[in-house]
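Incident log, structure service

09:12 report received: a user says their structure output differs between two submissions of the same chain.
09:20 pulled the input from the user's history:
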Amino acid sequence: MNKQAKTLKQPNGLRSYLSKYLGVYVFLLVMIVGMTLISDKFLTLSNILNILRQISVNAIIAFGMTYCILLGGIDLSVGAVICVGGVLCAKVINTGANIYLGILAGIAVGVAAGLFNGLLVSRTGIPAFVVTLCSQSICNGMAYILTKGSPISCNNEKFTWFGNGYVAEIIPVPVIIMLVIFAITLFLLVRTSFGKHLYAIGGNRDCARYAGINIERDETICYVISGTLAGVAGVILAARMYSGQPNAGDGYELNAIAATVIGGASMTGGIGSVAGTILGALVIGIMNNGLNLMKAQYYYQTIAKGVVILAAVLLDTYKRKLQVRKQLEAAAHEAKAESAKNQSN
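09:34 re-ran on a clean worker, output below:
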């Protein structure tokens, strides 16, 4: 377990952080320079704030996705949870209830979906892909039943402030919410035993169990966190769009996976960080914004995201093979040295 812990330990310090995410920073810089040359509207304050507002929803659900991927799992239901959470929130507020009751209802849907996913994945052994795919279908159906296929308008100014308002008349409210959630999820992952457990489980499940880690409990908590953050994102999106829409979250699961993988998380588990995830969300946001400024069709955005995810996974696979090769070479060299030492004695 000690050797495993050493391999899973995340680098500390500014130097190691920059080394780990240097590729992402270079890619971001190239994109920013390229988009600036293509469009004079890109590097303006209004557009930068627009990018930050746009990535906030994706980043929030991607933080939860990071937790699931760290375990070697995945949560395909987040987009559908966004839909049903936003719809229920708008529906409750339209009944005349307090807006905070509506917000609580939208988030509660996410908690329930996450608990459903977590219990099935951790207690039954059914692959997370299958469980969350079924959950996605259920939540999508619930969203359409609640709306009968039509958006539910909600123009309550106090509520829409959460999606369109500003703090200090400059910083979008969704960006503040994103940063708060980022700080919380980063703290849980880096400064608590729960976070260390996730890296251990994702790195070597059997070793984690022998070390006394309650895998079922931690796995369930991860999916509850993912569902809860998807519910929060659904509320923000409904507030931003002035309505709860049954298809508002379509495709967001792909965006979240893209942000997580681009940020350095390994789909096999044990490697990843929300610090990298927020960088990945920036890459996706800038790419989408640039394509919009170029007036490219939405279909090109989906192609671009697919290519970027594939490139990130291929890079991760190559890095893992290179790491295994180095470990084998080091072990062989050590064994050879030990053999030579024994012969000399």
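09:41 both user submissions now match this output. Likely a transient worker issue. Closing.
09:42 reviewer note: The CA atoms of residues 83 and 248 lie 5 Å apart. The beta strands are 152-153, 166-167, 171-172, 243-244.
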